[in-house]
Design a protein that fits this description.
Elements lengths: L6 H8 L4 E5 L6 H8 L5 E4 L3 H9 L3 H8 L7 E6 L6 H12 L4 E7 L3 H5 L9 E5 L44 H7 L3 H5 L2 H23 L5 H13 L7 H8 L3 H13 L3 E4 L15 E4 L2 H7 L6 H6 L1 H20 L3 E6 L5 E8 L2 E7 L11 H9 L7 E5 L5 E4 L2 E5 L4
Parallel strand pairs: 1-4, 1-5, 2-3, 3-4, 10-11, 11-13
Antiparallel strand pairs: 6-7, 8-9, 9-10, 12-13
């Protein structure tokens, strides 16, 4: 099986005296990862199986009875529950068992939605649990196909991200070019599938999961409006949210559109990026923007074919979204840093502002292979205006090697990110 950056962290967490909860969108590899690191669980439940789900919904006390039937041992019994959110009462059962004997059982729960748990009497086991989010593939898990991939790119990146002990495992996912990533996204199963199958697989994912399963989970009655919303939201991915326009085009109210966005966020389908607020500059736009969690899923949900032609029709925007997703995944895994964007009413814009260790790092994303000083003017102005907290910036592009565009601004190839 292929290596995931987060697997060693989860292995260590399972050894701790806490319940471990793993969330993430469908097909990010949660079940595959757990099967890799947990070979012989005492109980493995999968609530995506309709009969198992019905049984535990009907008999909430069943898990407690089964766990107590496991003979006591020096080694805690290991219980894995997949798609746990489909039976929210299981979280209360786990809390009951954990509170009665913290050393007799270890629990690992995973799921693709936090919504049902928040809306039910169940909880996230505060003070008893460690929460992990599994995301689509990082660049560190799926190397670039370009020849410069072997360079010491971590010395250039605004947010270096490497495997534990600075050692790459041997079983990384297959290499991929930038265009391939922008066309098909970074879901593990898609990355390993044949090229000729990827478009159909992503169409099925969009139809079955986003349009049908998510709609059922939220008990959405206006099927046409939600279907229209998912398509429009995918098309607008990477842009500032315009609730009024989406409401008008979808035929529903603004509060309904906001509830749809919240639903996609709780199902880990979108990431929100707030507007930068740490500036004295007037007339900064304050509305947040968002990105679909995976570009392949974005294309399929927008009704577009996942292909090189789709990428080349709008490469700049897709490249910008890919960089944002890579930075967000690193931030979420490391637990350090924050990402925002800046735009003024007069049109001054910086794609991303990385906040790290109380410093601001402005980042522009350009599709060009030949960056120059025209690509740095907004970054340069930002650094001058925030010189106490910002002293360097980056242009991430398709140049072959890093380039110093000014003493404070470095252009780097995407593969060095």
């Amino acid at each position: 099986m292929y290596s995931r950056w987060i697997e060693n962290r989860i292995i260590e967490a399972i050894e701790s005296p806490f319940v471990n909860i793993i969330f993430g969108a469908r097909q990010t590899g949660k079940s595959t990862l757990l099967k890799k690191i947990i070979s012989t669980p005492d109980i493995w439940l999968d609530f995506s199986n309709p009969s198992d789900k019905a049984q535990y919904l009907h008999y909430p006390e069943l898990l407690i009875q089964q766990c107590k039937a496991i003979p006591k041992s020096r080694v805690p019994a290991l219980i894995v529950i997949d798609e746990a959110q489909l039976v929210p009462s299981v979280f209360d059962s786990v809390q009951n068992l954990y509170d009665s004997d913290k050393e007799r059982w270890k629990f690992v729960l995973c799921g693709s939605s936090a919504r049902k748990i928040r809306m039910s009497s169940a909880n996230f086991l505060p003070g008893r649990s460690m929460l992990h989010i599994l995301l689509p593939l990082l660049k560190a898990e799926r190397p670039p196909a370009e020849t410069q991939k072997k360079a010491e790119s971590k010395n250039y990146s605004p947010l270096p991200f490497i495997f534990h002990n600075n050692k790459e495992p041997e079983n990384l996912f297959p290499c991929a070019s930038l265009v391939e990533r922008l066309a098909f996204g970074e879901l593990p199963g898609i990355a390993c599938a044949s090229l000729n199958l990827r478009n159909e697989l992503l169409k099925t994912y969009s139809l079955v999961y986003i349009e049908e399963e998510i709609r059922r989970e939220a008990s959405i009655k206006n099927l046409s409006a939600f279907s229209k919303f998912t398509q429009l939201s995918a098309i607008e991915s990477g842009n500032i949210i315009n609730y009024a326009r989406l409401a008008k085009d979808s035929g529903v109210s603004i509060p309904t559109i906001k509830s749809y966005f919240q639903l996609l966020e709780e199902m880990f389908i979108i990431f929100r990026i707030p507007a930068f607020s740490g500036s004295s500059r007037k007339k900064l736009l304050s509305t947040e923007k968002y990105i679909f969690f995976d570009l392949g899923v974005r294309h399929a949900s927008a009704g577009l074919r996942c292909s090189e032609d789709t990428v080349l029709a709008n490469p700049g925007s897709l490249f910008e979204q890919w960089v944002g997703l890579e930075l967000l995944k690193r931030i979420k895994y490391s637990g350090e840093g924050a990402l925002s964007y800046m735009r003024t009413a007069s049109g001054i814009e910086i794609d991303y502002i990385l906040e790290l260790n109380n410093r601001y790092i402005p980042i522009e994303v350009k599709w060009t292979e030949h960056p120059d000083k025209n690509d740095t003017k907004h970054i340069d102005n930002f650094i001058k205006e925030h010189k106490k907290v910002s002293d360097r910036g980056f242009v991430i592009c398709r140049c072959k090697y890093p380039m110093e565009l000014s003493p404070d601004i470095l252009a780097i190839p995407w593969s060095y990110l």
